[in-house]
Amino acid sequence: MVYAIVRAGGHQEKVSVGDIITVNRMKAKAGDSVELDAVLLVDGETVTTDPDALAKVSVSAEVAGELRGPKIVIQKYKNKTGYKKRQGHRQDLTRLKITNIK
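That's the Large ribosomal subunit protein bL21 sequence above. Prediction below.
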């Protein structure tokens, strides 16, 4: 089984060919191909962590689309002053489909 740990959108994700992952928004349109940086590669029994060897590894993914994450509610409150504030946030996300690990 071949899989890799890649750095994508500020996080690290474990991926193999055919996986669909969700990362922070990337500046790419649906259908575009993107390259991800590999941090670790497992190819059967071999585990590769050497940066020089990982520079030759390419993990390619196709942008499957964009979506928005769940709503996060932010509330601020100060006792005895009458101050309260409510705010919401939804993170923009990008969905990637892993197409190749070389």
